[in-house]
Description:
By secondary structure, the chain is α/β, with parallel strands linked by helices. It has two domains: 1-212, Rossmann fold (3-Layer(aba) Sandwich), CATH 3.40.50; 217-309, Orthogonal Bundle (Helicase, Ruva Protein, domain 3), CATH 1.10.8. The chain is 44% helix and 14% strand. A five-stranded parallel β-sheet has the order 2-5-8-1-9. Strands 3-4 form a two-stranded antiparallel ribbon. It has a two-stranded antiparallel sheet with strand order 6-7. Helix 2 (25-36) crosses helix 11 (246-262) and helix 11 (246-262) crosses helix 12. The radius of gyration is 20 Å and the shape is globular. The two termini are 25 Å apart. It comes from Candidatus Propionivibrio aalborgensis. This is AAA+ ATPase domain-containing protein. Belongs to the MoxR family. Keywords: ATP-binding, Nucleotide-binding. Residues 37-178 form the AAA+ ATPase domain.
Amino acid sequence: MPSIEKKSSIVDVIAAANQIILGKNEQIRLALACLLARGHLLIEDLPGVGKTTLAHTLARLLGLQFSRIQFTSDMLPADVIGISIFDRESSNFKFLPGALFSHVLLADEINRATPKTQSALLEAMEERQVTTEGETRPLPDPFFVIATQNPSSQIGTFPLPESQLDRFLLRIELGYPDRQAERALLEGGGRREHLPELAACFNPDQLIPLQKQAADIHVSPALLDYVQLLIEATRNSPMFVHGLSPRAALALIAVARAWTFIDGRSMVLPEDIQAVLPSVACHRLRLVHSADHARPEDIANLIRAIPLV
């Protein structure tokens, strides 16, 4: 069980983030669960709905080193990873780390870069290290990628390959604010100018133990049976080109544990699995009769079709 002090800190993060990102409590909780599960987050939506602001907000509240890369079509992998330059004084090459070497990396509009540049993140996201010029360099711990992308229908975008999508533990959409939240935004003005006022609730040394505690949340054998039924249903469904992989099943358990930890509980419930499954599964499942990925309503139908064990 998380201690009262640590639970309060998590609640403080969510409460403070809700003052900046209005009306998006569930998305904030999912983003925090993604970090606690040591994953990476993909936010896909229209420009101007708060994707970048959410990334800035989480980095400040979590007390983590933050860097941002604006992806463009002419970027090269070295712009992400870093480059080596010749140092005359030492007569050696010196490596200058890129923005990738930070606790939180905002990969803004990642699908505006070419696949070659997108691939620069693959090793970093999976192995938490990068290999350049024959040398492997570890990344900071924790390491959290928040990537934003615009809808693929917009001009100048390159679709993320399946291998890249699978590196993202969760995919979320912010969507338009509800009427009440939008009215508060219109009356109070933009929220990004309030970011410097946010006080950090954590630092990296405090966050790592929380990630370990989240990973230790209990999952019963009966719940694992339920997860297996859900995974098998995606593989047997005629709706999807292919089902969820074992890596996706592990992702589902990890996020459900983190979601449970945020609530201050010691055991994952079926409701926790159901709450996070759409964000884990939609970007990993492609529909048979179109080029689109699965929608939340497709996953909701799947959940209704699988009885609790």
